[in-house]
Amino acid sequence: MFDGQNRTHPARGLRAPSLRGCAASCVASAVAVALAACSALGTPRETPSPLPRAGAPAPGLAAPPREKRGATLSRALRPVLPRGDTRLAVAVLDLDSADQEIASYGTGTTFETASIIKVGILAALLLQAQDEGRELTVDEREYAEAMIRTSDNYAADVLWHAIGEAEGLGAANERLGLYSTRGGPGIGWGLTRTTATDQVRLLRAVFARGPRASVRPPEGLDQASRAYIGHLMGSITDEQDWGVSAAGSRGSRWALKNGWLQRSTTGLWIINSVGQVTVHGHRYLVSVLSGGNRSMEAGIALVERAARAAVGAASAHVRPWPQ
Fold this sequence. Notes:
Layout: H1 22-35, H2 66-77, E1 87-94, E2 103-105, E3 111-112, H3 117-131, H4 138-149, H5 153-162, H6 165-176, E4 193-194, H7 196-207, H8 223-233, E5 255-262, E6 269-279, E7 282-293, H9 296-314
Antiparallel strand pairs: 1-2, 1-7, 3-4, 5-6, 6-7
Helix pairs in contact: 1-5, 2-9, 3-5, 3-6, 3-8, 4-5
């Protein structure tokens, strides 16, 4: 069943579903309870793939050669790597670097998303609305806000059906350059499988500035859609402040989405966190995925240590100008 951290009542304050496929969502919601135990916590906190420059770099020293970035990240993560059956994958990107590269650890390893997939669901919904030349309806916006800000699972059920479930998600992923993400079976959106690198690609599609935010710009999220997702990720409820936000500079704004799921077969936890943080004036996109954690608390501690190490490695070349 869903974890107890999702304190918002599924339907409280929301209108009755008026979206395509909502007739099935009530039945689907009950089935989804047996498949995923997902939630999120937050507020305003491969081989590396070459990415186009998103804007002028902030003052700093030259970035390390791209072939060394993965090795630098692996070295930084060494002290925090889990033991036993716990698995970890991390990816990080300096959005304001002149020579952008995704540095990754655990390349190609897939994890179940839990509630971080809610960002992908919203991205797919917005792409479909763009294609239809319309804005989101009042109901869609209410569901989107509940799904991202409070990680409401019923809202995710409704919007998962609205986008066409795994097929609709897959179409959006292709447009946004996510190559290793596969939608969960049936109504099991929380069982979608993804990689840390793909999640940074999705974050780049949201947070990069200008038309280069998408691998295929004419077909990606437009400026209004990116701003909307970023706003919701930056206004997650205060009680949900954990995960990659721990890696940001004190007092800086951040945006994130977390997810967790306890597997009924093993009792072990999947703990994931994705988002944007700012350090030394640079914006970093961070994705930390983990599985096989003995408890939710242990998983959160691991994710936060990994996020700090990843941003530390990525920001080692950045130094503020002397005053």
